[in-house]
Amino acid sequence: MLRRFLPPAIAAGVMLASFALAQAPEGQTGYLTPDTTPSTLRIMPPPPPPASGRGADDRSIFEVTRALKGTPRWDLATRDADLRPGPTLFACALGVELDSANAPVLSRLFDRVAIDARGVIDPPKDHYDRPRPYLSRPDAATCIDKTDALTKSASYPSGHATLSWAWGLILAELAPDRATEIMMRARAIGESRIVCGVHYLSDVEEGRTNGSVLVAALHASPDFRADLEKAREEVRSDRETPHVGPEGCLDADQAAANPPY
After folding, report:
1. Which tens digit of pLDDT belongs to each residue from 33-73?
2. Model pTM?
């Protein structure tokens, strides 16, 4: 059974474990239905076999990035593990902090897309059931606790990379003049999962594929397109008074400019 169709209380628990997302308001739904959700299990390839070259690369990158513990990049990865800030995660890339107070339409849109993301993440996760990288070396450092819920949530593809990439694509459409910076930040959020030690590189790469497929499907939804246009005006208005200073963005900017592997 796909997690998106579990009873609400259980589904919310899985979402919190997997995404560190706040529980959606009662009655809130995504934009897609089971019939309009793409079958990403058919789209994406299997994860690299452990004995393959790509499998070896995945393990090597996992080992090398353990040395980042204690660095600013590790600290950023720890912060990036929590996706609840939604649009605020892209404040440095956009030059303005957007949240539920000054961008309620965009925040609600992000929440609804997070609900839809389960439909493209869970089928391949459940089917391939790839173990998290730290399970191959239990003493390896991770930037978040190795909880039972995290361990039971399969590694491939990365849910964080899926959702952050989808959010980035949407935000880049709303602020195309900042598309490069926004997508660099979206990439870095996914890479934070590698730094954190809870995903392989290939998990994150396929997460980006997943996020792109999700956004393509969302554009077929009239409700999504209507909210997107409302959010466009909201973002335009908020950007007239940017207030994110460079002093608070150094770590995020450096992470976007310098991949950790």
Report:
1. 999 999 999 999 999 999 999 999 999 999 999 999 999 99
2. 0.91
> Which tokens belong to 239?
């950007």
Q: Does residue 127 have an active-site annotation?
A: no
Verify whether residue 193 is a known catalytic residue: yes
Q: What is the C-alpha separation between 196 and 75, in angstroms, rounded?
A: 9
Alpha helices in 175-245, H assignment, sequence order: 179-196, 201-218, 222-238
Q: Between vectors from CA 127 to CA 51 and to CA 15, what angle results, nearest 5°?
A: 115
Of the candidates 43, 82, 15, 33, which has an alpha carbon nearest to the alpha carbon of residue 208?
Answer: 43
Cα(217)–Cα(240) distance, integer angstroms: 31
Tokens of 99: 């949240």
Q: Is residue 112 annotated as part of the catalytic site, yes or no?
A: no
CA–CA dist 213, 221 (Å, integer): 14
Residue 203 annotated to the active site: yes
Separation of alpha carbons 166 and 162, rounded Å: 6
Instruction: Output Rg (C-alpha) for the chain, integer angstroms.
Output: 18
Catalytic residue among 3, 73, 130, 160: 160
Question: What does the pLDDT read at residue 142?
Answer: 98
Q: Could you give the CA distance from residue 158 to residue 208 in angstroms, rounded to a whole number?
A: 8
pLDDT, tens digit, 9 for 90 and up, residues 74-104: 999 999 999 999 999 999 999 999 999 999 9
Catalytic pick among 199, 208, 227, 238:
199
Query: Among the options 185, 193, 227, 238, which is catalytic?
Result: 193
What is the distance between the alpha carbons of residues 83 and 116, in angstroms, rounded to a whole number? 15
